[in-house]
Design goal:
Length: 55
């Protein structure tokens, strides 16, 4: 049986604005096998930017 960390690993989402700001979240490996890209708020530049998954 798969454990909690196998199916939903912890990932870091790093800002593409170059500020170094990160979000930490979990993702479902079965639904999203590729690297995630989300639009989230970056408080350093004070606007929404793309955040890409880093491991």
């Amino acid at each position: 049986m798969a454990t909690r960390t196998d199916l939903r690993p912890i990932i870091k989402l790093r800002s593409t604005a170059g500020t170094g700001f990160t979000y930490v979240t979990r993702k479902n490996r079965r639904n999203d096998p590729d690297r995630m890209t989300l639009r989230k708020y970056d408080p350093v530049v004070r606007r929404h930017v793309e955040f890409k998954e880093t491991r």
